[in-house]
Amino acid sequence: MASMNAYPAATMESTGFGFPRSCNVPNVDELEPLLPQHRWTGPDVKLLNDVRELAQRNTGLLFIVAGEAFFAIADAIVQTLQKVDPPLTTLQLMVIRMTIIYIGCMIYMFVAKIPNPLIGPKGVRILLLLRGIGGSIGLFGLYYSLRYLSLSDAVVLTFFVPTCTAISGAVFLGESFKLREAMAGFVSFAGVVLIARPPALFGDLGSTSDTTPSDADKAAAANRMKAVVVSLIGVLGNTLAYTLIRAIGKRAHAMHAMVSFSSIGMLLASAGIIITKTEIVIPTQSKRLVLLAMIGIFSFVAQILFTMGLQRETASRGTLALYSKIVFATILQWILFHTTPPCLSVVGTLMIVVSALYVVLTKEKPKPTLDQPVQHLTSREEVLEQGLAPSSNRA
Questions:
Q1: Cα distances (Å, whole numbers) of residue 239 to 10, 104, 132, 366
Q2: Contact criterion met (CB below 8 Å) for 304 and 174
Q3: What's the pTM?
Q4: DSSP line for 62-118
């Protein structure tokens, strides 16, 4: 996590651009009648000033939204590479992405001279290890689901994570978990069912054919159900990762969590390739090599933007920006793959997004009473307050 040391304020002496001490600087009040007032108070200038002020107040939010756009592009590239012949396996894509992120993180940490770049600071190394395992499971769930689900469906299933993280935080970290959050979780689960459309509940509605389902339709439905199950396992992995990130708080730099996530993911994916004897597809076309490099680069840039944004935003507002990814995913799905989600998937997506936004927007803010002075946070409270701030290192 970036250092919290404040930078010294710039003065005329330090910048070297101020007037000399002996220079008689004219008073602004004396020049005011000479200034063209309409240039500074016109509607166009006022609009630009309002936009600039709005952007300055929401700089962190804009960084997070930009990071989500890069994440959506990386996921779209992954789905593209899984549809070409021969397709790259999920584990191989994980190794490539994690390797590029790991190299980028290590270069940054050595240049910035961040201590303990390999294993992190003492006291949180086990937590960082478990965070890397959970994040790797979450990434595997997302990449596997992209083989059989549309980009928007695979992305929206990850929106289950905030609700699961809230429950985990209440159980393990003592955070509050209210009835409205439980109801939102139930509605989100109903949305997941609409996206998965299991044949036991929906019969032939999950089939795209108007006739009797063929063997191919049945196989597609089975693969779809399997993808949803694996994606939900990935949600549990991300829940573990995010809960541990809350517990770590400011005891480790954000790059430590990224290094742990990328290195452990790289090792686990490589071990999975060896154990399952997965055939390694060696790309020879220059186009595929460029796309593979873009996955790692876009993922790394997304992580950096995410970190910068969450360092400037509160946890609740930062979480609100996470759901912009479904917008980018839907647009990319329409542009790149020329497909639109079925009506049931749209309804399920709206249920999950609205539920998640409801939890974020209805979050109560503690207000000091008149007879109770505002108190500074203790070190433990400050750690818990950071909440999702380090979740920029999410899977």
A1: 43, 25, 12, 26
A2: no
A3: 0.68
A4: HHHHHHHHHHHHHHHHHHHHHHSSSPPPHHHHHHHHHHHHHHHHHHHHHHHT-SSTT
Is there a cis peptide before residue 33, judged by omega within 30 degrees of 0? no
Both tokens assigned to 45: 């200038």
| Measured CA distances, 340 to 156, 222, 224, 352 (Å) | 14, 21, 17, 18
* Integer Cα distance of 259 and 283 in angstroms: 26
d(CA 91, CA 85): 17
What radius of gyration, in Å, describes the C-alpha atoms of the chain?
25
Q: pLDDT of 282-340, one tens digit each?
A: 888 888 889 999 999 999 899 788 767 766 765 556 666 777 787 788 888 888 888 87
Q: Which structure tokens are listed for 48?
A: 């630009």
How far apart are alpha carbons 76 and 112 in whole angstroms?
32
- Contact (CB, 8 A) for 358 and 287: no
pLDDT in tens, 36-65: 444 455 666 777 877 787 777 778 778 888
Report how far residue 341's alpha carbon sits from residue 357's, in angstroms, rounded to the nearest whole number: 21
Taking a C-beta distance cutoff of 8 angstroms, is the pair 192, 228 a contact? yes
Structural contact between residues 219 and 141, judged by C-beta atoms closer than 8 angstroms: no
Query: What's the token pair of residue 158?
Result: 């990850």
Cα distances from 258 to residues 155, 217, 318, 380, in angstroms, run 21, 40, 18, 23
Length of the chain: 395
Any residues with CB less than 8 A from the CB of 25 and at least 6 apart, and which? Answer: 19
- Compute the Cα dihedral for 107, 108, 112, 113 and give only its sign: negative
The C-alpha atoms of residue 301 and residue 306 are separated, in whole angstroms, by: 8
- In the block, tokens 């399952």 appear at 276
CB under 8 Å to 295, separation ≥6 — which residues? 74, 77, 78, 81, 93, 96, 97, 100
Cis peptide before 115 (omega within 30 of 0): no
For residue 95, what are the contacts with CB-CB under 8 A and spacing of at least 6? 266, 269, 270, 273
162, containing H or E segment: helix 161-172
Reduce the secondary structure of 363-378 to three states and give it as a string: CCCCCCCCCCCCCCCC
Query: CB–CB of 209/363 below 8 Å?
Result: no
Sign of dihedral through CA atoms 315, 317, 323, 327? negative
